[in-house]
UniProtKB/TrEMBL annotation:
This is DUF4300 family protein. It comes from Streptococcus taonis. Residues 50-289 form the DUF4300 domain. Coiled coil: none annotated. It holds the Pfam family DUF4300. Residues 1-23 form the signal peptide. Keywords: Signal.
Length: 292
């Protein structure tokens, strides 16, 4: 995956594909690629928000209540089983409970890995797509389509080793997050139309909305792929967005005043997931392109 054009030709395909497994790539001042996985936002942002890693009983109960208003109890329970397992394993790295102002977060992936690996072995944990499907699986209708799961091998390995889903759910997961064929063009409108056409085959919830960051890839033919995804639901003060940042990095529940603020957050966070000859990433709200 040529996000920001990887400088080291010898990188293995596993790493290249992991870069779209809800991970971040950053480029240093000398133009080389830094594959450290962090979340970083400028202090100067065009949206206002508060966030929690749900690392306390009160914050868990608060988020659970909001999600349960729009999602079935079994899905919310399954999601929080994953949240609590992660937080109980690595929560000592400084994950937050109470909601606090959100502009810039950086998580210590090395410390997290040092806590996770001795307890979990070769199970890498779960990422944005797995958690989003966990929440939505009983709220959306997924047709029996031909799937292209070639970029989901890390996800599927995690699902198997963590016994996250059964065979039927895993197949539906692979269909929902399949690669979508596209053209060798940088015009986002062209790619967004193809993604709208693909996602229009699914019946989504109007309240628990799937917000996706779609990236353009030309590693093995021209295709589109959901590189990051989370769930947005209405709340008393606006909207609540829940996401698992990467396999390594934690869960975040973020309160936004408007849907547009959440769109801006995602657009800002992933704006550099591109490269020469590739279209810039774009946001989908369920099956509709978000034009910012």
């Amino acid at each position: 995956m040529k996000f920001k054009r990887l400088a080291t030709i010898g990188l293995c395909s596993t790493l290249l594909l992991t870069l779209v497994a809800c991970s971040q790539v950053q480029k240093s001042s000398d133009g080389t690629t830094d594959t450290s996985i962090t979340q970083a936002q400028s202090n100067q942002v065009s949206w206002k928000a508060t966030y929690s890693n749900m690392n306390s009983k009160p914050s868990e109960e608060e988020v659970r209540k909001v999600l349960a208003a729009y999602l079935d109890e079994d899905s919310v329970d399954a999601f929080f089983n994953l949240v609590n397992d992660y937080n109980e394993t690595v929560g000592s790295v400084g994950l937050t409970g109470d909601f606090s102002t959100f502009t810039k977060n950086e998580y210590d992936v090395e410390k997290i890995s040092n806590l996770w690996t001795p307890k979990k072995g070769d199970f890498v944990g779960t990422n944005c797509r797995i958690n989003s499907y966990c929440l939505l699986r009983n709220s959306i209708e997924i047709p029996k389509l031909e799937k292209d799961d070639s970029l989901l091998f890390v996800d599927n390995d995690a699902i198997d080793k963590g016994k996250v889903f059964g065979a039927e759910d895993k197949d539906a997961f692979d269909i929902l997050f399949s690669r979508v064929k596209t053209e060798a063009i940088t015009d986002v409108k062209v790619h967004a139309a193809k993604m709208e056409q693909f996602l229009s085959q699914f019946k989504f919830s109007e309240n628990a909305r799937m917000l996706s960051v779609v990236v353009h890839d030309d590693l093995d033919g021209q295709s589109l792929f959901i590189g990051h995804v989370g769930i947005l639901v209405p709340s008393e003060d606006g909207y609540l967005f829940v996401e698992k940042i990467t396999f390594e990095e934690p869960y975040q529940a973020i309160k936004f005043a408007t849907k547009e603020d959440c769109y801006k957050y995602l657009d800002t966070k992933y704006e550099n997931y591109t490269g020469e000859g590739l279209a810039k990433p774009f946001i989908m709200d369920n099956d509709k392109w978000v034009q910012l």
